[in-house]
Amino acid sequence: MRRKKKEMKYSGIGGQAVLEGIMMKNKDQYAVAVRKPNGEIEVEVEHYVGIAHGSRVLKIPFIRGIFQFIDSLALGMKCLNFSATFYEEDEGGETAADKAFNKVFKDKADKVFGALVMIVSVAIALGVFMVLPYYITSLFEEYIRSESLMAIIEGALRIVIFVVYVASISLMKDIRRVYRYHGAEHKCINCVEKGRPLTVKNVMKCSRQHRRCGTSFLLFVMLVSVVLFFFIRVDHPVYRVLLRIALIPVIAGISYEIIRLAGRSNNILVRILSAPGMLLQRLTTREPDEGMVEVAIAAVEAVFDWKAYLYEAFGYEVDDSWLKDDEEGADRDADADDTDADGGADADDTDADDADAGDNDTADTETDGADADDTAGTETGDEK
Questions:
Q1: Is residue 8 part of a domain?
Q2: pLDDT higher for 109 or 184?
């Protein structure tokens, strides 16, 4: 008799991959775990206070997503800079430009540099993914008279550019390693949300796809923009460009609510909406090795009591004997609270089972108290 699979349960944690490491966030606390050049794992734990921390706007649908998106970008950049410091030192220390920059801004140099990088990155992203598709499409105005068709072509082109970009950067060696850490991050969250003790063996068997991933959030941004630009139109070319930029907060707010819903539901509509993002994650995640999973586990354990979560969400306690990473222990871990009609243990679920059951990920990290989790990460976050 085939037994019912365990239901995925929302944990509230989210994160993103960084250079040779992973950031995990739980409520207002986050941890960055990095594999240093000497092989050791460095873990830094800090509190992050968002720009609207404690405000009621974080409880208002569609508005809260704007602030979560901004916080995700700021925290993600901070964590990336932290992880990069270990490898900058390994590659020869400060350059003359670094010394001059530090001399001008002194103890605020890191914050100023991070802000400048974020501003430039956002400007480039707007230019490539918002303005460029409009400009290319506008070249065909003389041949295509239908504004509706032009809006559809622009939207399709925007999505194509995004997918090509994601696929192209995956050809870079360093990015491929980041994608592997991205997979390790997803696997860890899927492991605990599936009700399995957080061991390397259990994590390696979980899916590397997750519905709350920042990749899915960004794809939703592209899809939502197609709809909004289709219905909201202006005549003047300059106003069209300004409109596309001005609607970014609205698009982010709507996309955030969709990704938030995807992380908490598993009905047929949510699964259909999540399917394109889950498919795209095949490009933005790769299978990690056990060393990468160890880094991910270190980041999770620094900010999240997964043993208490398993007891609260799934109703069983984990003792130290369960954490032995051998084959027998892993089989018990995967099916600790399920038995079949004959009293036997459940067979381990495959990656495909995990993804289909509602793999919830990382990108959205909420700070409204009850919810901890996003986008891109950017990963928004959760990417995500």
A1: no
A2: 184
Q: Count other C-beta atoms under 10 Å from residue 149's C-beta.
A: 12
In-domain check, residue 1? no
What confidence score (pLDDT) does residue 276 get? 92
Q: Is 344 within the bounds of a domain?
A: no
* SS3 readout for the chain: CCCCCCCCCCCCEEEEEECCEEEEEECCEEEEEEECCCCCEEEEEEECCCCCCCCHHHHCCCHHHHHHHHHHHHHHHHHHHHHHHHHHHHCCCCCHHHHHHHHHHHHHHHHHHHHHHHHHHHHHHHHHHHHHHHHHHHCCCCCCCCHHHHHHHHHHHHHHHHHHHHHHHCCCHHHHHHHHHHHHHHHHHHHHHCCCCCCHHHHHCCCCCCCCCHHHHHHHHHHHHHHHHHHCCCCCHHHHHHHHHHCHHHHHHHHHHHHHHHCCCCCHHHHHHHHHHHHHHHHHCCCCCHHHHHHHHHHHHHHCCHHHHHHHHHCCCCCHHHHCCCHHHHHHHHCCCCECCCCCECCCCCHHHHHHHHCCCCCCCCCCCCCCCCCCCCECCCEC
Look up the domain containing 294 and give its range. 14-333
Residue 357 belongs to some domain of the structure: no
Total structural domains in the chain? 1
Nearest partner of 85 among 50, 120, 109, 116, judged by Cα: 109
Q: Which two tokens stand for residue 208?
A: 């590397």
Q: What is the pLDDT of residues 277-329, one digit of tens each?
A: 999 999 999 999 999 999 999 999 999 999 999 999 998 888 776 666 544 54
Give residue for tokens 């995807």: 262
Q: Is the per-residue pLDDT at 360 higher than 60?
A: no
CB 207 within 8 A of CB 321: no
Q: Does the pLDDT at position 367 exceed 70?
A: no
Closest CA to 191 of 76, 304, 29: 304
